[in-house]
Task: inverse folding
């Protein structure tokens, strides 16, 4: 039997970090469909994030992307967040949108380009000092398109050199999270293509370097929960970039394409202690809402993570361990599926009510009037968005 009060406590203490870029306009390489009322600057993105937190009670942290969220005064941005009950989360570096990075950023064969990229990464740590952020998230689009284009091993050397310089610059309470992605925009050899490459670099760097698992960054059919269990066991899982995908890096709402996979991932998190705050696992979203309304989509995504977490918490650990020890394959599988097949929506509704929240976050947002307010109030100015 699972301890229901422990389940409720765990659900109340989980924190889900939302990405600033999900609030802005975004699209595919074919078209950006602009929406009314979308934030015009990072401050307005935080105003929207505060609505997600108000409706769900578990989303008080907002990740930033530099330069998309570049402001004059980061301490001021932090104050703006804190006035709304928010804190600033991971600083996502961006060394992929500059002409100089055509052949790579930190792995570029040209040392001047490498210096420029490193300068940006170090600037991101300066920003973390001002925003109070714990995490620097590093994703490199670096790689090659054609066999022979560059020396694969030399690029690893250049990567290691840059990572070491950034690691040196981190403060005592800061971490760097290295994100991997199999392909895109490089189509032959990506420099950080998989968890093994990220893990090897992080292991060499030290305890402040950890791996981040973006659920959209694997080959189809990859067993992501295995990676999660392995990294947690090694103390190297820094966090997640949650989203869901049907084909490639689709960045759709987490839990929309494959809620069973999300459950399996969260089961490994729960089983291996990753929900405990001291492990530092960050539950971040990395999504773009290209055709759906943005704030409700983010609320729905937060709820999807909560539902998968609740199901994972409901797995009867004693019954599962007994079945596993007895070699009872069918019973072990049935114990896991029982939890997955539980309707946890009433449990989550009552947990929210206990926290003084509306039992249905989507209804709470609809009733708040915020959407009408931003549509009529945010006119003029350039709307911020992915790549803005
Ligand atoms: C790369 C990525 C990475 C970027 C974000 C916008 O595909 O997942 O996390 O920072 O998208
Ligand atoms: Mn990501
Ligand atoms: Mn991605």
Result:
């Amino acid at each position: 039997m699972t301890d229901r009060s422990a389940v409720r406590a765990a659900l109340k203490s989980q924190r889900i970090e939302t990405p600033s870029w999900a609030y802005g306009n975004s699209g595919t390489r074919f078209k950006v469909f602009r929406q009314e009322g979308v934030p015009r600057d990072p401050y307005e993105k935080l105003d929207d994030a505060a609505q997600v937190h108000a409706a769900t009670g578990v989303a008080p942290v907002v990740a930033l992307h530099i330069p998309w969220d570049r402001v004059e005064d980061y301490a001021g941005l932090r104050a703006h967040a804190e006035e709304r009950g928010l804190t600033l989360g991971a600083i996502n570096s961006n060394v992929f949108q500059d002409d100089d990075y055509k052949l790579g950023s930190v792995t570029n064969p040209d040392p001047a380009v490498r210096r420029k990229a490193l300068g940006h990464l170090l600037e991101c740590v300066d920003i973390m000092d001002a925003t109070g952020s714990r995490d620097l998230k590093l994703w490199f689009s670096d790689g090659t398109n054609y066999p022979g284009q560059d020396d694969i091993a030399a690029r690893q050397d250049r990567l290691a050199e840059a990572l070491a310089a950034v690691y040196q610059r981190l403060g005592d309470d800061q971490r760097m999270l290295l994100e991997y992605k199999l392909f895109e925009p490089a189509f032959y050899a990506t420099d950080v293509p998989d968890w093994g490459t990220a893990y090897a670099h992080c292991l060499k760097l030290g305890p402040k370097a950890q791996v981040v698992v973006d659920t959209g960054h694997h080959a189809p059919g990859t067993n992501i929960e295995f990676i999660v269990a392995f990294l947690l066991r090694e103390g190297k899982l820094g966090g997640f970039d949650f989203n869901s995908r049907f084909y490639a890096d689709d960045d759709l709402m987490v839990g929309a394409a494959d809620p069973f996979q999300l459950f399996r991932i969260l089961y490994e998190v729960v089983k291996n202690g990753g929900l405990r705050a001291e492990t530092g696992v960050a539950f971040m979203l990395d999504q773009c809402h290209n055709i759906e309304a943005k704030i409700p989509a983010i609320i729905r995504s937060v709820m999807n993570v909560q539902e998968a977490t609740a199901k994972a918490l409901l797995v009867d650990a004693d019954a599962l361990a007994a079945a596993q020890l007895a070699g009872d394959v069918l019973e072990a599988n049935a114990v896991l599926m029982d939890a997955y097949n539980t309707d946890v929506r009433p449990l989550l509704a009552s947990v929210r009510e206990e926290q003084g929240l509306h039992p249905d976050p989507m209804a709470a947002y609809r009733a708040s009037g915020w959407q009408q307010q931003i549509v009529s109030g945010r006119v003029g100015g350039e709307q911020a968005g992915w790549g803005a």
